[in-house]
Amino acid sequence: EVNLGGHSLISLLYADDNSLVDTWVRRMRRYLSVCDSYAEQHGFRFAPNKSEVILPPSMPPVDFHLHSVRLPIVENFKYLGVFFGNRGIEIDSQIAKVEGQVNAVMSTLR
Asked: Is CB count within 10 Å lower at the N or C end of the chain?
């Protein structure tokens, strides 16, 4: 789990986008198992092809599965337009994104 402002955080949720957060392999596998079971009980599936895993830098590669599909391990991902890496929000990527957006708007104003 991750501490955010003194609160433990295990999931980010918005509409049909969600992100599970933990630093322990066993708990993360348990969360994914709960997702599998919940989806099966309620007649839907999460999209493993839209799911990824980021590992802490010190952790050796391990496998995670969702609906029996192995999830790819990645270095970063974008959640609701915000770039995340294994240490949290990637500020440099966010700044570059905003600079690009500002430059695009400025070029239309010229």
From this structure: C
Q: Is residue 82 helix, strand or coil?
A: strand
Query: Which tokens in the block code for residue 53?
Result: 């895993």
Element (DSSP H or E) covering residue 19: strand 17-20
Please check whether residue 34 is in contact with residue 40, taking contact to mean a CB–CB distance below 8 angstroms.
Answer: no
Average pLDDT over residues 31-41: 92
CA distance 21 to 95: 24
Q: What are phi and psi of 80, to 5 degrees?
A: 55, 40
Measured distance CA(67)–CA(74) in Å, rounded:
19
Whole-angstrom Cα distance, residue 67 to residue 33?
8
Give the span between the Cα atoms of 11 and 86, in whole angstroms. Answer: 15
Nearest to 21 by CA among 7, 42, 41: 7
Average pLDDT over residues 51-65: 86
Distance (Å, whole) CA 107 – CA 110: 5
Pairwise CA distance, residues 20 & 12, whole Å: 7
